[in-house]
Amino acid sequence: MNIKQDLITINQYSRPSTKLKPVKGVVVHWVANTKSTAQANRNYFEGLKAGKRDVKGNLIYASAHYIVGLEGEVIQVVPDNEMCYHVGAASYKTDKLGTYPNDCTIGIECCHVDDNGTMSAATLESLKELIKALCTKYQLDPVRDVYLHYDVTGKACHKYYVNNPKAWTDFKASLQVDPVHAANVNKLVKAGIISTPEAWYGLQTVNIEHVKSLIAKVAAKVS
Ligand SMILES: [Zn+2]
User: Fold this and answer.
1) Full residue range of the structural domain in which residue 95 is found
2) pTM of the model as a whole
3) Closest Cα to residue 168, out of 157, 180, 160?
4) Among 72, 19, 14, residue whose Cα is nearest residue 205
5) How confident is the model at residue 10 (pLDDT cuts 50, 70, 90)?
6) Biggest alpha carbon distance in the chain?
7) Domain identity same for 167 and 189
8) 105 and 190, same structural domain?
9) Shortest CA distance to 84 belongs to which of 143, 25, 137?
10) Number of domains forming the structure of the chain
11) H helices within 48-143, ranges in order?
C-alpha cells in the first residue's frame, strides 16, 4: 500500500489545524458518491475552504484524514496529528471516544463502486492495510477501537457495512494480528530479513513471490 500525501489547505471548514488528542479510534466512512475517485473526494474537501453550503443553507464542515480510492490508491489529505470534521453529531451512541469524537479519532473515507457501498477488492485490501498500520502505530485494538461512522453517531455510513453487519464483524476479525506471530515478524525485521512488516502481520496479502524472497533471505542467513 502506497500512501500519497496530497494535503488540503488549512482552512476553517475542512482543515482547522487543531491538534488531535491522543488517538483512541479509527472511523470508517463511505464517500456516498458512487465511482467518484479518491482524488475527486480530496478536491471536494479542498473546495470547502470557499465556504460551501448544503441544501438547507448550512455551511459544510467536512474532511477525513485518508481516502481509499477505487484502484486501492490511498491519499492522505490531513496529517494524522490534526483534527478532521468526520464524525461530529448532536449526540453520540458511545462514550468511549469522549464528548467530541472528532478530537481523538482518525477518519478514513472509502470509495465504492455502487450505491450500496460495495468496494472493489483493491479498495478493501488497501483499507485493511491502512487500518492495520494505524492500529500498530497508535496501539489500537482492531476489534475494540475501529468504528463505523454508524457506531459513533447512528448515521448510515459506511452503508455497505451498516447493511451487512456480519461483513463488518468479519472485516474486523481479519485485522487481528496474532501477538506471537507479530513478535516473530518484528524479530525478522530487526534481523534484516523482512522489510515490510505490515505485509506479513496479517498474511492475507502475502503472495508466493514474497514467500520465495523470504526463503532466499533466510537461506542466506543459515548458509
Ligand atoms: Zn461517514
Assistant:
1) 3-173
2) 0.82
3) 160
4) 72
5) very high
6) 71
7) no
8) no
9) 25
10) 2
11) 121-138
Residues 214 and 169 in one domain: no
Q: How far is the CA of 97 from the centre of ligand 1 (A)?
A: 16
Q: Are 102 and 155 found together in one domain?
A: yes
Same domain? 202 vs 153: no
What is the DSSP secondary structure assignment for residue 7, as one 8-state letter? P
Using left for φ > 0, alpha for ψ between -120 and 50, and beta otherwise, residue 191 falls in: alpha
pLDDT in tens, 69-112: 999 999 999 999 999 999 999 999 999 999 999 999 999 999 99
Going from the Cα of 123 to the center of ligand 1, the distance in angstroms, rounded, reads 16
Per-position b or e across 173-206, b if 16+ CB within 10 A of its CB: eebebeeeeeeebeebeeeebbeeebbbbbeebe
Helix, strand, or coil (residue 19): strand
The residues pairing with 7 across neighbouring beta strands, listed in sequence order, are none
Task: Classify each residue of 2-30 as buried b or exposed e, where b means 16 or more C-beta atoms within 10 Å of its C-beta.
Answer: eeeeeebeebebbbbeeebeebbbbbbbb
For ligand 1, the distance from its centroid to the CA atom of residue 87, given in whole angstroms, is: 7
What is the distance in A from the centroid of ligand 1 to the CA of 157? 5
- Ligand 1 midpoint to CA 136 (Å): 23
Question: Per residue in 16-53, pLDDT tens?
Answer: 999 999 999 999 999 999 999 999 999 999 999 999 99
Coil vs helix vs strand at 187:
helix
Place of cell 518484528: 186
